[in-house]
Amino acid sequence: MRRPGPTAGADEDPVTEPVLGWIPAAVGAALVSALATWILTAGVAILGWLPGVTGSVGETLAFGSRMWLLGHFGGIRVGAAPWTLVPLGLTLIIVICLRATAAFAARQAYQAHRLRTGPAEPDGRTQVRLVGRVVAVQSGVYALVVLAVGLSAPGTAIGRAVVGALVLAVLATAIGALAGVRARLVDLLPAWARAVPRAVGTAQLVMLIGAAGALAATLLQQYERVTALSSSAGAPVTGVIALTVLQLAYLPNLLLWTGSWTLAAGFTLGDGSLVSPVQTQLGLLPAIPVLGGLPAEGVGQRALLCWLLVGVAAGVLAAVVVMRGRRAARFEERSLVGGLAGILSGLVFVVLALLSGGDLGSNRLTGLGPRPSELFLMAPLVMGLSAMVAGMIGGLVRMVGGRKPDRPKPGTSRRTTKERAGGDSDPDQEPTVVLD
Q1: How far is 252 from 91, CA to CA, in rounded Å?
Q2: How many whole angstroms from its chain centre is CA 122?
Q3: For residues 396 and 323, is the Cβ–Cβ distance under 8 A?
Q4: How far apart are CA 400 and CA 396, in angstroms?
Q5: H/E segment holding residue 108
Q6: pLDDT higher for 376 or 408?
Q7: What single-letter DSSP state applies at residue 292?
Q8: Residues pairing with 82 in the sheet
Q9: Angle at the Cα of 277 (from 274 to 283), degrees rounded to 5?
Q10: What is the mean pLDDT of the chain?
Q11: What would the pLDDT profile of 282-317 be if each residue is shown by its tens digit?
């Protein structure tokens, strides 16, 4: 591991006294992250409760606690209906909070170490040890908090919530702690593989941007239906705000579902339903405004297949990014490496998309989300083929357009390598004159 950028001297990065010890900082980071995100979900629940006032405040806060646990992939029950559809927007906020607070806690450990050993930067082994301590303490405390909330909120799959919280905490705090000790995880990879994470990330970003464009386009096309569903709810301002925030919490899910749609794999909204560019088949759906943007039932128009270009663009950019540092590679090597980057990008998108699915009940709204087998086929296929072709074309263009060796001008002598180096030439060998 090393610090990003040039190494700073003692004057540029002075050793300062840590604000807290690293153990209190890690414990506090876990508690602050849990409290901040719980307050967010409880506040939204209170907003939804105010208009109707059909239950007690305690019941409303318990529902907010269950929704908070659902953000950790813990299944809950709303009445008698099981919910396993995770609001990935809330999960993303939890990850951001854990990462930011872990960076602060690791910074305290980093400053305390330098205060003991001097202004020199710690080596890689020391950085790993500092990161491991912060991750272990903060993740363990956070999992205990989730366990305590789960025990106090009935109707929750506590085991799933604790395991999900532990996995999220370890991943988020590890990334934040590495930043806190000024280390980069990518430096642990071999030199040839260091561009792969950036290539995969670029492909995921392209997929999300393309999905956002497709989602915005269909919402604009069905604008009247969406607004009609919004007005038919008849909720006051606080209820509208709560419903809007709830839909935003599921926005990453919708983007991943739309990304599966752009790959022609499609997604489902319950038993027997199908939404894809080729065909759309819907049944009874809840009156949620964002669902008003779904296309009409029947065979899809051929023009909708143009959205496959989103996956093609993701694969091409993944190949471009992964090959930027391999300028001397042959075209077949470029094609192979680009294709592998595209396939890996497709598999990562499959994993993310599968995390976005789940149930909202036990009857009609079960199995919501992308279709696993179709997506597992289409995502690596589209991205992998496009990346392989892009790598091959880029290699051929570079090979054909490369510089050719200079030819001597007519009438000039062609000297040997030994003569150009300043050595003695063979006296029996005459200089070669190129005839015009």
Answers
A1: 10
A2: 30
A3: no
A4: 6
A5: helix 88-117
A6: 376
A7: G
A8: 77
A9: 25
A10: 82
A11: 877 777 788 888 887 888 788 888 899 999 999 999
Q: For the CA atoms of the chain, what is the radius of gyration?
A: 29
DSSP for 352-364, please give it. Answer: HHHHT-B-BSSSS
What gap in Å lies between CA 336 and CA 341, rounded to an integer?
9
Angle at 73 between CA 70 and CA 77, to 5 degrees: 45
Q: Which residues contact 249 (CB under 8 A, 6 or more apart)?
A: 87, 88, 89, 90
Q: In 153-232, which residue ranges form alpha helices assigned H by DSSP? A: 158-180, 196-221, 223-232
Q: For residues 220 and 305, what is the distance between their CA atoms, to the nearest angstrom?
A: 19
Distance of CA 44 to the CA centre of its chain: 25
User: Looking at residue 31, what is its pLDDT?
Assistant: 96
> pTM for the whole thing?
0.83
| Cα 342 from Cα 346, distance rounded (Å) | 6
- DSSP 8-state symbol, 275: E
User: If 0-12 CB within 10 Å is exposed, 13-18 middle and 19+ buried, where does residue 83 land?
Assistant: buried
As a whole number of angstroms, the distance between CA 291 and CA 288 comes to 6
Q: How far is CA 23 from CA 112, 137, 436, in A?
A: 12, 7, 82
Show the tokens assigned to 432. Answer: 């070669």
Alpha helices in 20-83 (DSSP H): 22-52, 57-70
> How is the chain split into domains, by residue range?
22-188, 196-400
CB 375 within 8 A of CB 350: yes
DSSP structure class, residue 368: B
CA nearest 68: which of 253, 249, 286? 249
